[in-house]
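Section 5.1 Outputs to date
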Amino acid sequence: MNRTNRRTRRSAALARAALVAAVLLGAAGCPPAAPPEDATARPGDAERPQRLPTATIQVGARPLVVEVAATEAQRRTGMMGRPSLGPDEAMLFVFLREDNLVFWMKDTPVDLDLAYLGADGTILQIEPMTAHNTDQVFSRAPARYALEVPAGWFAAHGIAAGARVTIPPEVMKDAEP
């Protein structure tokens, strides 16, 4: 095997390893990796939470307006930096395909509940998420969506694993890997 073929194979192997690492660590709303520095950032930007486009979903029989995190940057930031949430504020994390997802609560100062959803909108699991906790919370099965709501919201509305969430198709228009 010549030197060029070895380099090509080594480069391909490194690219595959990087892709696997990105999927495992970066396919979540608040992944462990820090977001890249923004050259246009101004002082104080880190304290301002992002606000995203909204959509109305149906959680069981209850309509819920959610902010939609459909890009890598939006999912990475998620609910970080929000000092409080209204009783019906929520964020839907959208992924192009089902995968094993992982979330954490770094720089998120409010307790949340997290639901992992299958591609058909079925709630696969609901997990309590404690403010500022950096423990990773993994989906037990491949999920296509994650829904973050204020702590106790699911219980207060009688929503449990197995319930259906109806997500309008236009939510997927801006989704990226």
